[in-house]
Structure formats: C-alpha cells, structure tokens
Amino acid sequence: MAHETKRTRVMIVEDEGIIAMDIKRTLMDFGYTVTSVSASADQAIKRAQTDRPDVVLMDVVLDGQMDGIEAAAMIRTSVGTPVIFLTSYSDEYILERAKITEPFGYLLKPFRDRELYTTIEMALYKDQIQRELRQSHKWFSTTLMSIGDGVITTDAVGRVTFINKAAAKMACLEEGEVLGLPIGQLITLKDEAAIEIADGLSEDVLIPIIASSTHDKDPVSLSDHLLITDTGKAIPVSVTTASIQDDKGNVLGVAISFKDHTRRKQLEEQLRHMVLTDSMTELNNRRGFYILAEHQLKLAKRFNKEIAIVFIDVDGLKRINDTLGHLAGDKAIIDTACILRETFRQSDIIGRIGGDEFVVLITELFGITEDVVTQRLLNATIVFNSQKCSPYTISLSIGFVLYRPESDLTIDALMRAADQLMYEHKARKRNNDSEIRSDQHEK
Q1: Contact of 83 with 56, CB cutoff 8 Å
Q2: Any alpha helices (H) in 79-219, and if so which ranges?
Q3: Least confident of 83-87, 231-235, 282-286, 420-424
Q4: Measured between alpha carbons, how far is 284 from 273 in angstroms, rounded to an integer?
C-alpha cells in the first residue's frame, strides 16, 4: 500500500493542533508525504502556492476572517489542487457553500483512518480523470478551432453550443456572441439548384437537416449549397451533419461542418469562362451562346413570351485582312463586339460564333422590332466610322427572327433562319452598291 501512495503529497489545514497531528500521523502511516500543517486560511493559501501539494485536507472552520470554504476556493482557483473538507458540522448551509467550491470529498469528524484513506484516493482519482478530460477537451477544442472547415454544434433544440473560428469567419459571426442563440437566427442554408429553378426563391434547408439528424441519428451530407449569413452574403459550401449522442443513444445535439468551396467555384468559373468565352472579343463563343440561349428558350416557353435571334455578319472582313493585314481584321472584329455591347442590353446574350459572324438573343422585346434593331446598329456603326479612328469602316448585315412560344422551333432552327435572312440582307446591300456604282459610271 505504501509503495503506491508514498509519492502523494498532502497538505493539512486544521486549527486544532491535536487533531492536525493525529491526521498527519495517520497519513504518514499510509505512506503519504505531508507537505505542511497550517492553522489559518492565509497561511494555507501561501503554502499551497509554494508547496503545490497533490491534495489539501481543509477544515471548514478556521481561526481568522476567512474560513476553510473561502480558502479552498482560492486554492482551487490559483493552484488547481483538489480539496477535501473536514468538518464537525453537517448543516445544509455549510454543505451548500462547500458545493460551490467543487470539493473532491467531504468528511465529518470524527472519521476512521480507512475512511480518510479512501476519500483521499477517490479525490486523487477524480482529479486525474478531470485533468485528462480537460486535456482532451483542450485538444479537441484546439483541433476544431484550427481546422479549415467551419464547425458549429447545437443542443437538441438547435441552440449554438460551440462555433470554431472558421465557421465564425465564414458566417460573419462573433464567437462569443452566438452561444445559446438559435442557429436559424444566424445562418440560412439553401440549395443552389433550387435557387436557380425558383429564380432566387427557395426554402431554408438547415433546420430540416438538423431535425433529421436529431431524429434519425444518421449523418446527412449535402453538396452544392449556399450558406447565407444575416448580412446576405452567400458562400458555396458542402455540409455534413451528425447527431451527438450519449452512451445510451440519447441525442444531445447536432454537429454541423461546413466546407467552403468559394475557391473551387472561382476556379470552375475561370475554367468555364475559358471554355465558353471567345478569347478575342470576350463575348460568348458558340458553345457558350448555345448553353445560354437554350436556357432562355426554355424560359420563353414556360412564361409564354417572345424572344428574338439576330444574326450579324461583318461586311468586307476579307478585304480588310487582304489590304490592311490580319491584325487590322482582328481589330475590326473587336470593334464590332464593342458596337454590339453598346447597342444591346446587358440582359441580351451576345456571342461570336465564327470568324466574322455574331449572334444576339434578345431576351425581352418590349416593342423591339427588326427595324428598331437595324436602325440602332446602323446608328452605332455611323458613330464609330465618323470617329475615323481606324483605317477601315464597319458595315454590318443582319438577319432578325422572332420566336413565338407556340412554335416548336429550336435554337438551331432559329439560327438557320436568321442566317438566311442575314445573307439576303447582305445580297440586297451588294445589289444596291452595284446600282450606285453603275449610276455613277453612267454619269
């Protein structure tokens, strides 16, 4: 027995000298080391801070202004040493006061030697377990605080019990100000696909998945969602929720982890831009135009509205390339793209689908007709050419096709029709130019 306890250091705080010596002798018989014997609270606090014993035996009633309960509280706070109270009193008031200091034992005088030994050993064991739990909690907390994913835990009714730095930063929250608040007041989670289908309107799915985790106890994983803060900021995330259960399987709360996919989305958007954008003009390329146009065609059918396709060709681009060089031809293409951007609205879809061919899908007509489009393009080219900033002039031929929702025309069919009308327009312009040159020759 002695070899197991000889390293345990015990401090005695007892103002009755005879009792203190008797306790000291008993402890030494059990193999404990007695670091000191104090008769007052002030003396006990100083010696505890100096000697740092493994356990303190504290008499509740001491001489002086401070009693043993107050001294125990100060020792526990400053040194962290477990305290066992010794008292001749068993009234409820003293017991309730003693509870506040979280004592590791409570012995009523007189007590048996074996009772003292058992209480000390249990106090040491309890202290060891608490230290290990604190250490585990510290490791756990530090790990959760340092990882890149956001983590929030709630109790069984959805009140926040923990939030790590990543989650607080992601959701624009202050760590110390959200504990105890319902998580639904702090963030909203929405399905990206549902938002697109509902034109921005979709229901919050965070509370339902928390409820699911609480009742079903199975982890729930969601991808392609948006975490929306109370400031309106939307962050692309994937989410995993899992119930927190006790040993009996009772659900205590829910752990929610968020992985921020902002950087991934940015890279995807950059790649998408490269794949769907014409590098010369920064307009949609053929593939990009078709993807957006197909979507607009579906919307036109669903909402029973008219849209229009405008096919546009740069007149005389070959002549510009042959006479001024391909750099000038490329510049003419870029200038045409600028003219189209200035002529059409941001809501309209503009694409370059070939060397000198452009196409525009007008998403909202509101009185826009073929004549209106033709006149606007003509005015824009006149303004550009009048600036005389290029060695060439821009001339455009167009084909305008109206789409009505009752028709079954596809984007390909609309494009072919607009292309044909554009060539007819180009042919008329050539005929007119020929007639003008013929008249001038006759004169």
Answers
A1: yes
A2: 92-100, 113-146, 165-170, 192-197, 206-216
A3: 231-235
A4: 9
CATH ID of 277-442, from 3.30.70.270, 3.50.50.60, 1.10.606.20, 3.40.50.300? 3.30.70.270
- pLDDT (tens digit per residue) in 166-197: 898 888 888 788 999 998 888 888 887 766 54
The radius of gyration of the chain from alpha carbons, rounded to an integer in Å, stands at 41
The pLDDT tens digits for 112-151 are: 999 999 999 998 999 888 888 878 777 777 777 778 888 9
d(CA 223, CA 219): 14
Residues contacting 19, CB < 8 A, separation 6+ = 109
Cα–Cα distance, 398 to 358 (Å, whole number): 9
Sorted by sequence, the CB contacts under 8 Å of residue 396 that are 6+ apart come out as 312, 313, 314, 315, 336, 339, 377, 381
pLDDT band with cut points at 50, 70 and 90 for residue 232: confident
User: How much is the pTM?
Assistant: 0.55
**Cα gap 70→395, rounded to integer Å:** 95
Measured between alpha carbons, how far is 166 from 147 in angstroms, rounded to an integer?
7
What is the number of alpha carbons within 13 Å of residue 420 lying toward its C-beta?
6
**Tens-digit pLDDT profile for residues 425-439:** 999 988 876 555 555
Contact 343, 376 (CB under 8 A): yes
**Distance of CA 96 to CAs 89, 106, 119, 424, Å?**
12, 12, 19, 99
Mean pLDDT to the nearest integer, 247-265: 87
Please say if the pLDDT value at position 31 is more than 80: yes
List phi, psi (to 5°) of 398. Answer: -130, 155
Contact, 355 vs 306, CB < 8 A?
no
CATH of domain 2-142: 3.40.50.2300
Contact at 8 Å (CB) between 236 and 261? yes
Q: Minimal CA–CA distance to 13: which of 65, 87, 117, 105?
A: 87
Per-domain residue ranges for the chain?
A: 2-142, 148-261, 277-442
- Write out the H or E segment, with its range, that includes residue 69: helix 68-78
Fold of domain 148-261:
Beta-Lactamase (3.30.450)
